[in-house]
Amino acid sequence: MADSTKKYTHFNVTFPREYVAHIETNRPEKLNSFYQPMWLELRTILDTLSHSPDVRALILSGAGPRAFTAGLDVKAASTSLFAKDESLDGARVAARLRRDVLEFQDCVTALERCEKPVIVVMHGISFGLGIDLATAADIRICARDVRFSVKEVDIGLAADVGSLSRLPKVVGHFGWVKEVCLSAREFGAEEAARVGFVNSVHESKEAAIQAGLDLAVSIASKSPVAVQGTKELLNWSRDHSVQDGLRYTGVWNSAALQTKDISAALFSGIEKRTPTFEKL
Amino acid sequence: MADSTKKYTHFNVTFPREYVAHIETNRPEKLNSFYQPMWLELRTILDTLSHSPDVRALILSGAGPRAFTAGLDVKAASTSLFAKDESLDGARVAARLRRDVLEFQDCVTALERCEKPVIVVMHGISFGLGIDLATAADIRICARDVRFSVKEVDIGLAADVGSLSRLPKVVGHFGWVKEVCLSAREFGAEEAARVGFVNSVHESKEAAIQAGLDLAVSIASKSPVAVQGTKELLNWSRDHSVQDGLRYTGVWNSAALQTKDISAALFSGIEKRTPTFEKL
Amino acid sequence: MADSTKKYTHFNVTFPREYVAHIETNRPEKLNSFYQPMWLELRTILDTLSHSPDVRALILSGAGPRAFTAGLDVKAASTSLFAKDESLDGARVAARLRRDVLEFQDCVTALERCEKPVIVVMHGISFGLGIDLATAADIRICARDVRFSVKEVDIGLAADVGSLSRLPKVVGHFGWVKEVCLSAREFGAEEAARVGFVNSVHESKEAAIQAGLDLAVSIASKSPVAVQGTKELLNWSRDHSVQDGLRYTGVWNSAALQTKDISAALFSGIEKRTPTFEKL
Amino acid sequence: MADSTKKYTHFNVTFPREYVAHIETNRPEKLNSFYQPMWLELRTILDTLSHSPDVRALILSGAGPRAFTAGLDVKAASTSLFAKDESLDGARVAARLRRDVLEFQDCVTALERCEKPVIVVMHGISFGLGIDLATAADIRICARDVRFSVKEVDIGLAADVGSLSRLPKVVGHFGWVKEVCLSAREFGAEEAARVGFVNSVHESKEAAIQAGLDLAVSIASKSPVAVQGTKELLNWSRDHSVQDGLRYTGVWNSAALQTKDISAALFSGIEKRTPTFEKL
Amino acid sequence: MADSTKKYTHFNVTFPREYVAHIETNRPEKLNSFYQPMWLELRTILDTLSHSPDVRALILSGAGPRAFTAGLDVKAASTSLFAKDESLDGARVAARLRRDVLEFQDCVTALERCEKPVIVVMHGISFGLGIDLATAADIRICARDVRFSVKEVDIGLAADVGSLSRLPKVVGHFGWVKEVCLSAREFGAEEAARVGFVNSVHESKEAAIQAGLDLAVSIASKSPVAVQGTKELLNWSRDHSVQDGLRYTGVWNSAALQTKDISAALFSGIEKRTPTFEKL
Amino acid sequence: MADSTKKYTHFNVTFPREYVAHIETNRPEKLNSFYQPMWLELRTILDTLSHSPDVRALILSGAGPRAFTAGLDVKAASTSLFAKDESLDGARVAARLRRDVLEFQDCVTALERCEKPVIVVMHGISFGLGIDLATAADIRICARDVRFSVKEVDIGLAADVGSLSRLPKVVGHFGWVKEVCLSAREFGAEEAARVGFVNSVHESKEAAIQAGLDLAVSIASKSPVAVQGTKELLNWSRDHSVQDGLRYTGVWNSAALQTKDISAALFSGIEKRTPTFEKL
């Protein structure tokens, strides 16, 4: 299996099923809060698995019983991202901040850019960066004990690594999006399911992980040409007009339809057996 | 009434109420699955009714008790769309596929392009192309027995005639859209209503048709200037910024407000009678 | 408090809490229906409060027990907006209508352009222009007795001051949007909550006002840098691709992160006291 | 050769060289002015040749010594496009005009939509619709005697079938575009070459046709996969951001690079002979 | 004639020909440099003339022999736009600057927003804001003695009221645009004409004014329906895809074609006399 | 100076003047043609210099007397980019090609993404990839002996790493762009200057390098806040509407105007000495 011997510092990466990777944020003693080396490493992991032929679906979750993630490690940020250098004028401070924020955004966007679907499984505290990560993934699942908050306004920030750009495209209830982003109020699993922020709610973290795994296995059993095309075309369509979406789809599929997976799938269907597909 | 004597090969086109057309896919023995001549004919019907002054609202449904449509007739496609010509290189195969897909897309888009609102009424099996057609229509209604599936990944395809471009704009729960498109799992009437894929669920196919008809009659009783403008402006707004939407609306209405329908509607309101409007 | 002595003709503007403004449409004897001087004055009020350092959140509601607003005062419009000048040709009539509509739109857009969040609280009759105003606000709250209708097609119009451009971006159920806009049928509080048109439903107008006030107070207690940035970035993201959203966010925050509000918020958090923020 | 036996009513279609088609507007007695059946037929011709494997480049010119085209046949238009039906209100007149204009635009767009490059060769009077057609083509060539005018304002119109949308994208001197469109003043070959409206100027109509033919032959000698991809990608890029252009190019070429034309071209280059390419 | 008795503080507004307005910046003793009250007044003038039925074309120039404008009055700006308030944090300074810049931009955009074509006539020093104003106008004309410079980088700024947004859309030579914006080097009339920044060069300021006047008179003699539509559609097309341009044009013209100006123009053409058009 | 001790394999990187970097492609024996390790290294160099505080302007040129670059090393590509793996189906080949092309594009885009202006100096053979690189830079300069060609169609390709996306935005003469891309014909320095592809032409390679250096020195002497903002805002504006350009400019400058460079520049101007600016 892919990269199975590779060890990472801040994340456990395992391959619990064929073609399925599981990335687990591993800093439970700090509620899986993130500091810069972590998001850089997460990007490395995702960019690697994105191209690995042994991976067709991914799960992202957090270690320990208490939190998917408490978000940004504010203490660490106060000596880096939020650190002040009084010798610089406002424009120069801005230039540094811009570089830092754009790099940070790019690490989160690695979830979206990953060629294979990513299912995020959330439990416990899932604040701030937790929402940024979740909205960059494809499918969101949670345990009943989850506590969500777009927490940033509570620390004087407009969320800057994706929630404000992606949440309005993930949840169709724009008033609700505004409310939770402007007030930073917590919301739970049931509310998240009702407004469409999560796909399903499960009794425990373990049950949620299992559900994520089952879904990943199901997706990984399909033609990777079809699955990866579907992810790409849905993301493209989100940001373009219907007409541009159709055109791009036509061009994309002019190559994708030249796959043997179609006949493999059709024959398996007729013969009522599970198809196998070449690696991609 | 419009074109009432015109016979089509694959569709029954009737005019059950004044200003209301009903298009019924008529291939029940094959679960109303589609092959190329059918989508070409559907385009012809829609482009004709779009300009007919005798039509103000349309319904689309499928004949027989079992299916709205099983989707693409895969068998037929395997000798046309999916047929291989080994003499051609990959680029030339792609060029042919692109033309075919773009033509196919254009036939489905005829539902969207139609100047009058189209209500699609679904029952039984409604797979693959059934979703493409449904998302290109304006309003979706279903019977309780409906079985939906964005089926394409199961045959090795990313859906290519509209579902991936339109479903994210029809349903605001992007995670759910991703899940059903990536996994091809079936979903039923209740789930479809909950996520906003359909407007209403009815006890039987007959009840759903009746509900669609009632809604069509209601829409057909309004000013056609107002109704057709509303469809156009909503579709434009879906694909443009709010500002471009407002501007286009202002320009559109600078002509539309010059209609006698406004005074007709206002006077009827005062006199508590049903207004009549000139043909359009 | 801001402008507390300023009197307006058609609106009551009060400041019920620190940093919270309440605008009340004050024409209850006409069901708070609007004519041109009213929307011009509303724009003036909003543009003023938008820049007032004493305001951090706003509520908009309607006076009297019967209506948020019955919409456009059709009688007044028939001698202005809809008035006919037979001496002009169709192009010249269009030019006048275009100017009038664009000005009218701009007055409604003042709700969206306002730098601070606007919560609209609706009760009783909330027709036509009421929907236009509501969709231009950030958060929608209603009383249980509310009666909503995108009424315009009933008077021969496609809605022209915002509903058709904004409703599809406020509610993620596009089929429902089409249905209510094409049929002008009424819908109530429960349906509005279910589809995501309103954030919450309250037992009475008074309870709804109180809930709006509570939410406004909560928002007004946060860093105004964070809150105003959040509103701006969410609105920008609605109309742009995710990538453009991220980029704009990075640039915006390169200045916004230079606020003392962050350390104020962080220290208050540690010391478990309420932070205070400089005016903005 | 392609469709060589097909006769058209208003156009001479010939195949003067291998893979090169020549469309000649044939109404010299009326200065090649257009009325509706002509633009409908032109669309048919272009849509046919667009898919013909025997055509790789096209030329469009006008018969007779006096005019490429005098533009719209105003006399004919006054009984069709400009005809008045006093029984209709302004909105209904607008609906008819909109349909007519959109259909007319679509016929002109056939030049742009044609998969193969179109070179337009202009001489003598080239007014109004002549500019619309020219801007929808890929390359513009003219004889020294040419007289250009964006004539529409002189008959009370803003040009409506493409010049105002395409001329700013064809000529980079926006002030000049505004001037000639607002004033309708004539300009000649030299000015057209200077601002970049035409690619080259030739001594006579015959010399211009010959130059167009030479260029068409040169283009037709290249890989049709490469040529048709180049046209498509340039047109796409005109209307999209650089980033969207790059992405679309990457997707397009993922199929196009699977052509045997590349090795054919490379080997021919090494062996210093002319490559031949399969039909497309 | 329009508003002929209205006096402005910083501008001379005259009506030298029927339907032609001339706005002259009148601060020659300061090289027509601008401070805030001036751009606010310029906006007022333009918004007024935009709707005046007595104006069909405008000229903008600068008083005195030495300068069209030296740009921003830096001295005045240093106590307003560039003034520092040390008590504010970087985010709050940014909020003030943003409001000021957006207001300033809106005043310059009044040239573009003006419904009638604006011809700017430049001579002598035309620096900084002079380029911003020029690019927001429709047509640029200059005297031979003109000295242009996108001066902002020389005072530590990226130009912020339009040059960087509009110059790349006015001049098709992007490398040249970059060079003059990045280096702030001066360029003269000949270079400006060569790259397409100006439409024409004249021997003296007086000759340039006369040429601008002649062009304005020519434009003012045309159908105002056609002229104003042409300006609008060209500006719309600059910022949209060709397809969106065509659609908007079709909708716009569905009203505009209902003008009597078309028959007025056609009959005048036949009778070889000058048409007259109703006011707009 | 920046990274002055760093050695690269395929490029000479020197710092001929304060704040000016010179990147020289160093494979003259192969006419500076590129293979994969070269474009990967070029990206590394550019991403590094982009953030180096010691660099404010860059020059890119090619070593040796014969070529800026002959483009892609086709021989090397035939064993990598164009290599065939017969075991893969068309969709899987496409997936690999897509990844390769997107990576290649990203390396070229590093020129555009570089925060500081890049001046490309071209001489001799400048084919294919040479045009891709040139259009991604900010300013293009050439020697009189230069030979340009958008060469790709001659080897069966539509150019895929930027020329087709950027050339139409760099040169305003779209017909010329189409001609040179469709025909692959060579063009020289004079033609390049006339159409606006290059900013200036110089007698020899040495003179061109000197001119590039002088321009780089001039740009490097300005406020880096102003220069880097100008590059960013011009690139943003190229891909967005004027309105989005203005808004982004306002937000960008709300931080950038908080620089001490403005007062430094203003005081130096008054005191007629050269300003110095803090590093950025």
Automatic annotation (TrEMBL), chains A, B, C, D, E, F:
GO terms for biological process: fatty acid beta-oxidation. Keywords: Acetylation, Fatty acid metabolism, Isomerase, Lipid metabolism, Peroxisome. It is found in: Peroxisome. The keyword Lyase does not apply. It comes from the Eukaryota. The keyword Aminoacyl-tRNA synthetase does not apply. InterPro entries: ClpP/crotonase-like_dom_sf, Ech1-like, Enoyl-CoA_hydra/iso, Enoyl-CoA_hydra_C. GO terms for molecular function: delta(3,5)-delta(2,4)-dienoyl-CoA isomerase activity. Pathway: Lipid metabolism; fatty acid beta-oxidation. It holds the Pfam family ECH_1. GO terms for cellular component: mitochondrion; peroxisome. Its main location: other. Belongs to the enoyl-CoA hydratase/isomerase family. This is Enoyl-CoA hydratase. It comes from Polytolypa hystricis (strain UAMH7299).
